[in-house]
Amino acid sequence: MATTHIKIGGLGGQGVILSGMIVGKAAALYDKKDATMTQAFGPEARGSACSAQIIVSDDRILYPYVDRPNILVTMSQDAYNKFSPELAEDGMLLIEEDLVKVGDELPKGVKVYGIPATRIAEELGRKMVLNIVMTGFFAAVSRLVSVEAMRKSVADSVPSGTESMNLKAFERGFEHGARLV
User: Fold this and answer.
1) How far apart are CA 3 and CA 34, in angstroms?
2) How far, in Å, are 3, 128, 139 from residue 149 at the CA level?
3) How do 92-96 and 71-74 pair as beta strands?
4) What is the radius of gyration, based on Cα positions, of the chain?
5) pLDDT value of position 63
6) Which of 65, 77, 94, 171 has the largest count of CB atoms under 10 Å?
7) 88 - beta bridge partners?
8) Strand (E) or helix (H) holding 111
9) Which residues lie across from 111 on neighbouring strands?
């Protein structure tokens, strides 16, 4: 694997930062890899563009910032518009397919995978778990972190009492992604 740069983008309130924390925690605590996370969000918390940048590596990470993500996850059109020009050639783009329309301007060799994460979250009765659906989808498509580590990280990271709902959301996202790869 060496080193993988990941950027997760969306709107404040979509759980972007929590998704990044889950991936980083799964990699570092459970899969024993080196991982860093930085985050950025606008001055208005909800509704403004935000992102989590995660680096996962088998080696020590010396610089924690992501300039050219190998994997870009976008949960809003604004995030796609803002971050897709940064995506590395031969990278991977994961989109919330009901909220993001992909243009022709992607770098050479980018693979695009989509999931109706909001619809799945609504079917589960909690639109708020959109980010966990996307996290499961990320786990299945990227195969960067073990699914066991991701499940543990989800259970450890969500509010107490919501673990069952969030794990269901994770599984639905994972199942959707597993069918695509």
Assistant:
1) 9
2) 18, 22, 10
3) parallel
4) 15
5) 94
6) 94
7) none
8) strand 111-115
9) 92
